[in-house]
Amino acid sequence: MSLARVLKAPVLVGFNAADEARDIEALDNRATLAAAHEALRTMFGSAFPAPLAAQTTRWGADEWSLGAYSFNPVGMRARQREDLFGLDWDGALGFCGEATSHRRFGTAHGAVETGRRLADAMA
User: Fold this and answer.
1) Quick check: 101 and 78 in contact, CB under 8 A?
2) Among residues 66, 60, 62, 71, which one has the least CA distance to residue 99?
3) 60 and which of 28, 67, 76, 93 could share a cystine (Cβ 3.0–4.6 Å)?
4) What pTM, to 2 d.p., does this model score?
5) Cβ atoms within 10 Å, residue 114
6) Cβ-contact 108, 98 below 8 angstroms
7) Are 88 and 95 in contact (CB under 8 A)?
8) Residue 21: which residues within 8 A CB-CB, separation 6 or more?
9) How far is CA 24 from the centre of its chain?
């Protein structure tokens, strides 16, 4: 995914999923970057330049998520995400997180935003 328009800089973000993500996450940063560059060269040609810098995350190793985040299956509506958010059982249990954000699902900022909304609702 290109962030060039938003950041006004040549920034690309890449995602890996399923078994391939587990395999790539086991690589060191240098090998991960080499694999990403090779994928870009396969897509855009052998002249695709090497990145000047890279940041690698290992979401699957995160003890709180273990690599999980939500996604929108075909036919999902924003209202379904909104229905997940809020207090239940007379306010005894609250639900928030990126999966409850209809605009920022699958992101850390969606999780933070809904967490703050829930904290306000509980106050």
Assistant:
1) no
2) 71
3) 67
4) 0.62
5) 25
6) yes
7) yes
8) 15, 60, 67
9) 16
